[in-house]
Amino acid sequence: MKAVTIKDIAKTAGVSYSTVSRALSGSPEISAETRERILEICKQMNYTPNTVARAMVMKSTKLLGLILTGVNNPFMSELAYHIDRQARARGYNIVLCNSSRNTEQERELFELMLGRQVDGIIICPSGPESYESLRPYLSRIPTVFVGENLREAPESYVSVDNYRGAYIGVEYLYNLGHRDILYFGRRRGSTTHQLRAEGYAAACRDLQLTAQYCNNAFPATSIKYGYQLAKQLLSQQRTFTAIFAATDTNALGIMQAAEESGIRIPEDFSLLGFDNIRDSSLPRIQLTTVEQPKKMMASVAVDSLLDRIQSEVAGYTHRILMPTLIERSSCAPRPF
Amino acid sequence: MKAVTIKDIAKTAGVSYSTVSRALSGSPEISAETRERILEICKQMNYTPNTVARAMVMKSTKLLGLILTGVNNPFMSELAYHIDRQARARGYNIVLCNSSRNTEQERELFELMLGRQVDGIIICPSGPESYESLRPYLSRIPTVFVGENLREAPESYVSVDNYRGAYIGVEYLYNLGHRDILYFGRRRGSTTHQLRAEGYAAACRDLQLTAQYCNNAFPATSIKYGYQLAKQLLSQQRTFTAIFAATDTNALGIMQAAEESGIRIPEDFSLLGFDNIRDSSLPRIQLTTVEQPKKMMASVAVDSLLDRIQSEVAGYTHRILMPTLIERSSCAPRPF
DNA sequence: TTGAAAGCGCTAACAA
DNA sequence: TTGTTAGCGCTTTCAA
C-alpha cells in the first residue's frame, strides 16, 4: 500500500533521483535514451507523482477553491459543473465547499482555502455584504466573485447585466401587448435583485407603464417564500395581466399558488422568470425566462481567475454578460 | 503577499519553531504562558498554517475525492451537498470532479486523485463496469461506491435496496386498485436498473399480475430518451392503467409525452417514479415516487469511508438503505 | 548529460 | 518545558 516514489525509481534505474525528476518533467537536459528507460520503469512500477510534494516546492497546488452558497441549488450546480470542466481543461482541480449563505462560514472557508494553498478562489457570495466581510482576504488570494456583484467593487467579478435583463423582460411582455406588469419578489440586501428592480422600473418609465410591485423582501430565494407571497397576492383582485418574477424560483412559487387557486398560466396571466434554472425547462413548467448564461459565466470566471494567477498582474476585471430571453410557454399575448 | 510561516512566528516570539508547532497543535508539553503568547503573535501576524506542508509529513491531506458522473444532475448535486457537509463536519474537504459517465475519464481521475494524495474516494460510478475498470486502483486507495452497485462486489458501496423499492412501488399501485402496471425504462448495463426490474417482476408474480414492459435499453437516463419512448408507447392502444418508471427522469419524459398527446395524469393513467429527485417535488409535477434517501446515503458513504481510513482496517462494507414511498399527485385509484 | 545538495513548511523523535 | 534535527517527495541550482 506504500506508494512508490521518485527515489524508488532512481534506485531501480540506477540513476540519481534528480535525473528521474528531469525525465518526468520533460526537461531537455537529459538524453532521450535515459528518459525512455526511466519512463518505462515508472510505468512498470506504477509510479504516480506526488502532487502535494510538487506543490510544496512549486508553490502552486493547481487547486481552485469553489465556494457556493449550496451546490444543491440548480443554478449553482450547473455553474459548478462548468467550472470543473473549464478548470480541468486548464490543469486545475476544484475544492468544493458550501457556505449555506452564511457570512461567517464564508470567512472560515477563506481561511481554510488559504491554508490549503489554493491558487485562487471562485465564490458565489451570500450577498453584497460578502465583499466587505471578505476584504481582508482579498489581498492575500486571487478571487473572483460570480453571480452577486457590487456596483463599484474594486474586485473581480462576473455577472450578468441584471438591469438590462429586466429591461428586455419588460419589453418582451410589452410586445406581447401587456400594459399591466407586476414585478414580483426581491431578496433582502441583494444588489442583483436591486438592479433587476431598477431595470424593470426604467423599462416601465420608457414604455409609459405604471410600475406595480409585490416585493416584500425575502430572507432568501425559495419556492416557499414565493408561494406564500403569491398566495396572498392572488387572493386579491388582479390588477395585472403579467407577472415578472425576480427569479425562476419565485416564479415556481407563483405557479404553485396559481395552480391551487385554479388560476391558469398563461391564460389568466403571463409569467416571466429570471435565471433559467434547469427546473424551468421541465415539462409542464415550461417557464419563459431571462437566462443567465451559466456555462459562459463559469468559463469566464475560470479564465479571468487563471489569467490573473498566471500573469501575476494585480488589478481586477469586471465581466458583465448579456442575458437573453428564452421563450417557452408561460407567456401569451394579452387577452382582449 | 508572501505568507507568514511558522519560522516568522518563531523569530518574533524568540523561540524555536518547534515550540510554535507545539503551541499550534495544542500539545501538552508547553507552558500555558508561552502558548498564549505565541497564539497571540500568530493572530497579530495573520498566520495561517500551511495544510500542504502538514499533509506531507502527516501523510494525510484530509481531502476526499468525489467523482460524480455530473454535478449538474439533481440527484448528484444533492448528494454532493450532503457529502460536503458531512465530510466537513469530520474535518475533511472535497475535491470534486465530473467523469461525464466515461470510464476512461474515471480512470484518469483516480490517477489524479492518487497523485493528489486524497485520503479516500467517493465515486458515483458510470455503471457496474466501473468496478472492473477501477480494480487496479482499489487496492491503492480506500474507495466507496455510491448509487450503482454490483451484486457481489468485494468493495464498499452504499446503495438503496432497488429490488425492494420496485417491489413496494408495485404494491402501492396494487393497493390503489391497479392491475395492469407497465414497467418503463432501463439504462443499458445498469445493475441498479436490473434490480429494479427484478423487484417489479417479483411483485407482479406475488400479486398475480401480468408483467408488461416497455424498456428498450437507454444509453443513459435522460428526459429526452424517456420522452421519445413514451411518445411511441402512447401512440398505441393503452394496455395499462399505471406506469412504473425506472427513474424520475424517465417519468418526466413520460409526462411530457402525455402532455403533448392530451393525456392526463393521473386521470388517464397513474405514474410512479423512482429516485425522488428535486424536480419531482416541483409544482405541476408532483410526481409520486420511490425515494432514494440521498442525505442518508451521503452521510453513510462519508462515515464508512472515514471509518475505514481512520481505523486502517482492510475489508469492505455494503450498506443497503431502505427506500420509502413519497406520495404526491401523479397516482390515483384505478378508475372503474 | 548527470549527480549532490539545498530547501519548500511542517511534525516528531530525541536531547538538553 | 524547550531546542535541535531529520525528513516527508519533490524541483532546481550548482558542480562535476
Describe the protein in words:
The structure is a homodimer of 336-residue chains. With 336 residues, chain A is an alpha/beta fold. The first copy, chain A, has 3 domains: 6-49, lambda repressor-like DNA-binding domains (434 Repressor (Amino-terminal Domain), Orthogonal Bundle); 63-160 and 294-317, Response regulator (Rossmann fold, 3-Layer(aba) Sandwich); 162-292, 3-Layer(aba) Sandwich (Rossmann fold), CATH 3.40.50.2300. Chain A is built from 12 helices and 12 strands. Chain A has helices at residues 6-13, 17-25, 32-44, 51-58, 74-89, 103-115, 129-138, 162-175, 191-207, 223-234, 248-260, 294-311, and strands at residues 63-68, 93-98, 120-123, 143-146, 156-160, 181-184, 212-214, 242-245, 270-275, 288-291, 318-321, 324-326. Chain A has a 6-stranded parallel β-sheet, with helices on both faces. Chain A has a 6-stranded mixed β-sheet with strand order 7-6-8-9-10-12, with helices on both faces. In chain A, strand 1 (63-68), helix 5 and strand 2 (93-98) form a beta-alpha-beta unit. The longest helix of chain A is centred in the last third of the chain and has 18 residues, at 294-311.
